[in-house]
């Protein structure tokens, strides 16, 4: 069977403007969550988020590009640039047609929607900029990546709420495995930190006003983040033949549907996805040393996730480490699995387990080793990354150290 | 007044073409200036915003529109006409 490896990674998020900065912040257990800054924030009851501060689009893109790139596309382009530069790949001829891009996002061009709704509804304007549609559409980021790097193979966008990125990366991996493509640019992006984006989430009453404290008994909800992470997935022999630096192996993937509730998670659905990923990666439960949790910091997710891990791993659940980096970068919704994969790669490559920060009180319903507050050193050969979306759609990736 | 309209239309077109207004002449076409279909709809949007007029233009078939875009001079003339009728 064709194997899939990662040969490039890139990111921008509240913890850093690139992968190195992000990993340094994760090692130090730094919190990227701060007071939100945007128009009408004073009308919100939730005013914190993992926002990328001091970001200037004009430092990165010309005027024409900015008129077509929503913030979620801008983040994608910056992360893709870093990942593709690292991979050392260029795309022409058959290489171009054998390469594609599959990205995850939930809200797509949310800032573009928000600004233009404000303009026509609140300001009473009757004319909008001609590029509103191509700027806000969910596939804009994937399309601009394909255009910028000449990726002419299978390309599309996956939108499964909080599991979008994991579903996208799972698709990318399967497309290389099946022989449909040799290289896939994949990951995800989100930029929902605007008045409408937060106002909608406020309505659900699942947001914290002070901090994201996954697995802590006093946790009181999730905190949103923004940003992107993009990876270059490549067929193993292809990468080896050109002497590429291999960052990690994407060993397995599984997805499942709870078929139960539009917002409440299910232990059985999550456990099936976890077990499926182990099976697909041909891993024994004991091989897994670290899980990057979905760990949203809501009462329901964290206890359900811990129960699912206990169910899937049996006794070994007490020996593995599980942390939620959302405590640092916030919940990037459709981009979250991509940024969290960086923590998985750091565990495999550097032997550093990113902590769950903000942890204050043990919860008997989350009685696993959640790596509270401080990073830890450990030798790690295999990891999982969990994502469990609203709508009961679960997607779990399994990674191994570079072969 | 009409000089002002001319100057403002040229400024809008020049910005789209990434040129100085002095480098845009009335006899040039949008093609000469390197303005593509997206640049054209953006220019029309900017003209509508600048003069608070509604430009009858359909991107499906630009040549069939009432709005003449065959040259910079034609666009200026069409804008002047629209301002005259729509202001009335």
From TrEMBL, chain A:
<dbReference type="InterPro" id="IPR018201">
    <property type="entry name" value="Ketoacyl_synth_AS"/>
</dbReference>
<keyword id="KW-0812">Transmembrane</keyword>
<keyword id="KW-0997">Cell inner membrane</keyword>
<keyword id="KW-1133">Transmembrane helix</keyword>
<dbReference type="InterPro" id="IPR020841">
    <property type="entry name" value="PKS_Beta-ketoAc_synthase_dom"/>
</dbReference>
<dbReference type="InterPro" id="IPR016039">
    <property type="entry name" value="Thiolase-like"/>
</dbReference>
<comment type="function">
    <text>Proposed to synthesize NOD factor fatty acyl chain. Involved in the synthesis of a highly unsaturated fatty acid moiety, which forms part of a lipo-oligosaccharide that is responsible for host specificity.</text>
</comment>
<dbReference type="InterPro" id="IPR014031">
    <property type="entry name" value="Ketoacyl_synth_C"/>
</dbReference>
<dbReference type="Pfam" id="PF02801">
    <property type="entry name" value="Ketoacyl-synt_C"/>
</dbReference>
<dbReference type="InterPro" id="IPR014030">
    <property type="entry name" value="Ketoacyl_synth_N"/>
</dbReference>
<keyword id="KW-1003">Cell membrane</keyword>
<keyword id="KW-0472">Membrane</keyword>
<keyword id="KW-0536">Nodulation</keyword>
<feature type="domain" description="Ketosynthase family 3 (KS3)">
    <location>
        <begin position="1"/>
        <end position="401"/>
    </location>
</feature>
<dbReference type="InterPro" id="IPR000794">
    <property type="entry name" value="Beta-ketoacyl_synthase"/>
</dbReference>
<comment type="similarity">
    <text>Belongs to the thiolase-like superfamily. Beta-ketoacyl-ACP synthases family.</text>
</comment>
<dbReference type="Pfam" id="PF00109">
    <property type="entry name" value="ketoacyl-synt"/>
</dbReference>
<protein>
    <recommendedName>
        <fullName>Nodulation protein E</fullName>
    </recommendedName>
</protein>
<keyword id="KW-0808">Transferase</keyword>
TrEMBL record, chain B:
<dbReference type="InterPro" id="IPR003231">
    <property type="entry name" value="ACP"/>
</dbReference>
<comment type="pathway">
    <text>Glycolipid biosynthesis; KDO(2)-lipid A biosynthesis.</text>
</comment>
<feature type="domain" description="Carrier">
    <location>
        <begin position="3"/>
        <end position="83"/>
    </location>
</feature>
<keyword id="KW-0444">Lipid biosynthesis</keyword>
<protein>
    <recommendedName>
        <fullName>Acyl carrier protein AcpXL</fullName>
    </recommendedName>
</protein>
<dbReference type="InterPro" id="IPR036736">
    <property type="entry name" value="ACP-like_sf"/>
</dbReference>
<keyword id="KW-0597">Phosphoprotein</keyword>
<keyword id="KW-0443">Lipid metabolism</keyword>
<dbReference type="InterPro" id="IPR009081">
    <property type="entry name" value="PP-bd_ACP"/>
</dbReference>
<keyword id="KW-0275">Fatty acid biosynthesis</keyword>
<dbReference type="Pfam" id="PF00550">
    <property type="entry name" value="PP-binding"/>
</dbReference>
<keyword id="KW-0596">Phosphopantetheine</keyword>
<keyword id="KW-0276">Fatty acid metabolism</keyword>
<dbReference type="InterPro" id="IPR006162">
    <property type="entry name" value="Ppantetheine_attach_site"/>
</dbReference>
